[in-house]
Write a structure and sequence with these properties.
Elements: H1 21-28, E1 32-36, E2 39-42, H2 44-63, E3 67-68, E4 74-76, H3 77-83, H4 85-88, E5 94-97, E6 103-106, H5 111-121, E7 130-139, E8 154-164, H6 167-187, E9 192-196, E10 206-213, E11 219-224, H7 226-229, H8 239-250, E12 254-256, H9 262-266, E13 273-288, E14 298-300, E15 306-308, E16 310-317, H10 318-328, E17 330-331, E18 334-335, E19 346-350, H11 356-371, E20 376-379, H12 385-395, E21 399-403, H13 405-408, E22 412-417, E23 423-427, H14 428-442
Parallel strand pairs: 3-7, 19-20, 19-21
Antiparallel strand pairs: 1-2, 4-6, 5-6, 7-8, 8-16, 9-10, 10-13, 11-12, 11-13, 13-16, 14-15, 17-18, 21-22, 22-23
This protein binds one RNA strand of 77 nucleotides through strand 8, strand 13, strand 16, helix 12 and helix 13.
RNA sequence: CGGGGUAUGGCGCAGCCUGGUAGCGCACCUGUUUUGGGAACAGGGGGUCGUAAGUUCGAAUCUUACUACCCCGACCA
């Protein structure tokens, strides 16, 4: 993409309302624009990151056997009356009337809707286990939205819902999601720690929050240090082995402040204790028949008798992750995107736009990298060099190729790694090949 | 929802107390000199001062109501 033809309204100054680093950088890098309290427009750079995160989530859900659907944002109030949550959910749920005076709600979550779909379509235990997910905008009318996209009112969430014929089978579904989540976050460069969680209003008795550590996190967390460095689990684990892998991950102490047990924590060797702040990026629940009973969701068991299905739900805050990743990966100059979610993989800086030789060299590399499938943000504007460097660092493009007349005389360009700040001369002829290799290795 | 605050060009702010028809920095446009880490100079464009009503010869400025947004708290993906 040529920057001269793009919408990336970066700013030198920090907007007054942003108090945390991810919000500041998202506004300064021109990724989002606030439209109302807790509601944002996603500008091109933000939209690309959002889509990349969404795609990683999708791939890992698919791989874990979940099946994608898409449910609407608006839902009939009747379904919520059936589950009993129309009255329980409170003012966080946005209620709307249509022109016929029918009650609608803007969905804060989708348990009711998915159970309705399921009960109308699935009749037999033979079709189970089944896990349906979608990635859709949610609305929760928070008392106080804040921290940019970290606690917005409208947010993009992946929510999956598992259906099983027995509690034991449901636990297998739960474990699959548990491990898929660890892989999902690892692919975004995040170390997410599963922590025992309070199931809250969703209900049930088995629940974990996935927390990434960041100084600006909303909750205080306590855990064993080993969890931070733990490698993500293997992608292919036999069903019979799931429990032992999950057990290995949950055997260490890890809890948020509301579930914290100081006595248990004391049993961890002092050098291994970690107290930090964290951001919740995922939350999984097993809730049994909490919805299937009131909504009469049954399948025929192997004995021919109907049984209530055992359910679980699994959420990932996709739009929150955009902020979360920035909180976890930035410096004083701006964002440092992991390659997997970067809006563009390579930033190409033309230090002297308008100079024939420089333009020619840059244009050629832009074409070559594009042809090789690399996503390039090409700064072809006539700004000064310093402004271009600052902007590219602020936006956080992981690899930068800097081309100016000075190096060009010797057939050289400069390759800069955003994360480390390292800059090396590289021959112009070898640049494309080298970049392709680096990008592919880091994807 | 309780407490506090703000609203003036795209962004950051001054002007308000003491009423006289809007200013600064950044950004934007033109030109010149520059040109490797957010250049300098000169010229220029852009604002019904959140909305409505009131007081007044005259309101960004005083009064009232409303709205929006931000911060702290309780609540939450």
């Amino acid at each position: 993409m040529r920057l001269s033809r793009y919408l990336a309204p970066t700013q030198k100054e920090t907007p007054a309302e942003a108090t945390i680093v991810s919000h500041r950088y998202m506004l300064r890098a021109g990724m989002v624009k606030q439209s109302a309290a807790g509601i944002y427009s996603w500008l091109p750079l933000g939209q690309r990151v959002l889509r990349k995160i969404e795609q990683i989530v999708r791939e890992e859900q698919d791989h874990a056997g979940a099946v994608e659907v898409l449910m609407p944002t608006l839902q009939s109030a009747d379904l919520w009356r059936e589950s009993g949550r129309y009255d329980d959910y409170g003012q966080e749920m946005l209620r709307i009337k249509d022109r016929q005076d029918r009650d609608l709600i803007y969905g804060p979550t989708n348990e009711e809707l998915i159970h309705d779909i399921f009960r109308q379509s699935v009749r037999s235990y033979k079709q189970l286990p089944m896990n349906l997910y979608h990635i859709q905008w949610k609305f929760r009318d928070e008392i106080r939205p804040r921290f940019g996209v970290m606690r917005g009112r409208e947010f993009l969430m992946k929510d999956a819902y598992s259906f099983d014929v027995s509690e034991e089978a449901a636990r297998t579904s739960y474990n699959k999601m548990f491990l898929a989540y660890l892989r999902t976050f690892a692919r975004m460069g995040l170390s997410a720690i599963p922590m025992k969680a309070d199931p809250g209003p969703i209900g049930g008795d088995l629940s974990h929050e996935f927390i990434i550590l960041a100084d600006t996190g909303e909750s205080e967390v306590f855990c064993h240090k080993a969890l931070v460095e733990m490698a993500p689990p293997d992608r292919n684990i036999a069903d019979d082995d799931l429990q032992s892998v999950v057990d290995q991950r949950t055997s260490y102490y890890a809890a948020t402040d509301e579930m914290h047990d100081a006595v248990e924590f004391e049993k961890v060797a002092e050098a291994d204790r970690l107290t930090a702040r964290g951001i919740e990026v995922g939350h999984i629940f097993y809730f049994g028949t909490k919805y299937s009973e009131p909504m009469n969701v049954t399948v025929a068991g192997s004995d021919g008798k109907d049984v209530f299905v055992e359910g679980g739900s699994y959420g990932i805050g996709v739009s929150r992750l955009v902020g979360g990743i920035i909180e976890a990966s930035h410096d004083d100059d701006g964002i440092i995107w992991p390659m997997s979610v970067a809006p563009y993989e390579v930033g190409l800086i033309n230090l002297k736009a308008g100079d024939e030789a420089t333009d020619k060299a840059c244009d050629a590399l832009y074409d070559e990298l594009g042809a090789a499938g690399i996503e390039v943000l090409y700064d072809d504007t006539s700004e000064r060099a310093g402004a271009k460097f600052s902007k590219m660092d602020l936006i956080g493009i992981p690899l930068q190729l800097i081309i100016g007349p000075r190096g060009l005389k010797d057939g050289k360009a400069e390759l800069k790694v955003r994360a480390t700040g390292e800059r090396d001369d590289i021959s112009l002829d070898a640049a494309a090949q080298k970049l392709v290799a680096m990008v592919e290795q880091a994807r």
